[in-house]
């Protein structure tokens, strides 16, 4: 299967949380050790973020994370599956309902950005801290706004990037302000065209909820059909 598990495991979220806390500690103390710790945690998070292809075999859905080798592995029995949802097809599906920790992580990243801008930190400059706010809120948009309403995500992204661009320009760096606004327009365009944004399957099980992402909606449909065939022993079929 070409689907890959989103970061719905606690260890990855802990590392992301520590990245945000390290940045906040640096801003509050001015100690460069926290920025060095942030850099280390950033690369660790990339390794843990690297999700691998979902496998379905021997009556189990196998989820793996890690690069260059799988470091974390979770096996889910087909008997544990409660429901399967195609996130691109449900009109009012808000993923934040299933992933409330996204609010905490996004809130922390936005807080880091705000503190950074207010601190007038000249070493890293306003663009970096504005980027924390952008990348804290953009993923939240995709979880709070139903994936089917991608035009709303695109508009919210443009508004956010525009406001941040104005803030950066007013801080005395108009070039970086224009760059931030441009980044927002590109991200919004890619979201509207479906290049970015969440597509895939929401796998609801007795042991938790897992988001399996893909770039191709047909992959999500095929995955759901295949799982249902196996769960129902070949009796189920899609009209």
Attribute tags:
single chain; 239 residues; alpha+beta; four-stranded antiparallel sheet; globular; disordered C terminus
Strand percent estimate: 5-15%
- Cross-sheet strand order for the largest sheet: 1-7-6-5
Using only C-alpha atoms, the radius of gyration works out to 20 Å
Number of strands: 7
Global shape:
globular
Helical percentage = 55-70%
Distance between the termini: 22 Å
- Overall pLDDT, averaged? 82
The ordered H/E elements are: EHHEEEEHHHHEEH
Biggest sheet statistics: 4 strands, antiparallel
Structural class: alpha+beta
Number of helices: 7
Low-confidence stretches: 234-239
Descriptive notes:
This protein has helices at 10-29, 32-49, 101-119, 125-144, 150-170, 174-192, 217-231; strands spanning 4-5, 55-57, 60-65, 72-77, 81-86, 200-205, 208-213. A hairpin with a 6-residue loop joins strand 3 and strand 4 (72-77). The strands form 2 sheets. Strands 1-7-6-5 form a 4-stranded antiparallel β-sheet. It has a 3-stranded antiparallel β-sheet with strand order 2-3-4. The longest helix is centred in the last third of the chain and has 21 residues, at 150-170. The model is unreliable at 234-239 (pLDDT under 50). The protein is an alpha+beta fold and 239 residues long.
């Amino acid at each position: 299967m070409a689907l890959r598990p989103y970061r719905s495991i606690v260890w990855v979220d802990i590392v992301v949380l520590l990245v945000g806390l390290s940045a906040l500690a640096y801003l509050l103390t001015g100690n460069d050790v926290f920025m060095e710790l942030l850099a280390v945690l950033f690369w660790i998070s990339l390794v843990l973020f690297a999700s691998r292809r979902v496998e379905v075999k021997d009556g189990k859905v196998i989820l793996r994370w890690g690069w260059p080798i799988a470091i974390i592995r979770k096996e889910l029995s087909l008997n544990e599956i409660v429901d399967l949802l195609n996130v691109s097809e449900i009109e009012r599906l808000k993923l934040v309902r299933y992933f409330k920790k996204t609010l905490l992580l996004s809130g922390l990243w936005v807080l880091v950005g705000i503190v950074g801008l207010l601190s007038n930190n000249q070493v890293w400059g306003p663009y970096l801290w504005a980027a924390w706010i952008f990348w804290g809120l953009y993923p939240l948009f995709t979880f709070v706004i139903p994936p089917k309403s991608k035009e709303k995500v695109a508009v919210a992204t443009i508004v956010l990037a525009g406001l941040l661009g104005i803030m950066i320009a007013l801080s005395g760096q108009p070039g970086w302000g224009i760059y931030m606004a441009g980044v927002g327009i590109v991200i919004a365009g890619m979201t509207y065209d479906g290049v970015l944004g969440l597509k895939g399957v929401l796998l609801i099980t007795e042991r938790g909820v897992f988001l399996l992402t893909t770039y191709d909606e047909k992959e999500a449909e095929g995955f759901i059909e295949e799982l249902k065939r196996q769960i129902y022993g070949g009796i189920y079929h899609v009209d």
